[in-house]
Amino acid sequence: QLQAFGGGLVQAGDSLRLSCTASGRTLSDKVIGWFRQAPGKEREFVVAIRWNGGTTAYEASLKDRFTISRDISKKTVYLQMNSLKPEDTAVYYCAAGSRLIYSMFGVASSYAYWGQGTQVTVSS
Questions:
Q1: DSSP state letters, 84-110
Q2: Are the beta carbons of 7 and 92 closer than 8 angstroms?
Q3: Each residue of 5-58: pLDDT tens digit?
Q4: Terminal Cα-to-Cα distance of the chain (whole angstroms)
Q5: Using the 8-state DSSP alphabet, how is residue 60 labeled?
Q6: CB neighbours of 30 closer than 8 A, spacing ≥ 6?
Q7: What is residue 25's predicted lDDT score, i.e. its pLDDT?
């Protein structure tokens, strides 16, 4: 089970940190990804991290503002978002996929387990 939280209403330029906590399953073979979906738009890839080893993949346009990290002891993945823009407004989901190859990190259908999503709203 995955739980994402930390969303909220912020102003443009603010920062926000989302958390995704996993429970009830091993993460040793997992990739944890963050995706987002804005109203009327398709779900899009944000960033992902391989639990073992920490290999990351970013959506290129977000790499300079977003950072993913993990706390192994807490079984939690964080998404630090800086310099937020109104276009970052979306529901953010975390997801877990097993034994993904790097080229599949950004493919939503590669992830079998999804959290409930947390709303991020950035006002201008």
A1: --GGG-EEEEEEEEES--GGGTT-GGG
A2: yes
A3: 999 999 999 999 999 999 876 788 999 999 999 999 999 999 999 999 999 999
A4: 34
A5: G
A6: 22, 50, 51, 96, 97, 98
A7: 66
Q: In what order do the strands lie in the sheet with 76-81?
A: 2-5, 16-22, 76-81, 66-71
Token pair recorded at residue 109: 């259908």
- Residue 27 CB coordination number (10 Å): 17
Longest dimension (CA), the chain: 40
27 vs 20: CA distance, rounded Å: 13
CA distance 86 to 79: 17
Give the amino acid at 75: K
Mean pLDDT, rounded, for 77-103: 97
Cβ burial, residue 3 (10 Å; 0-12/13-18/19+): middle
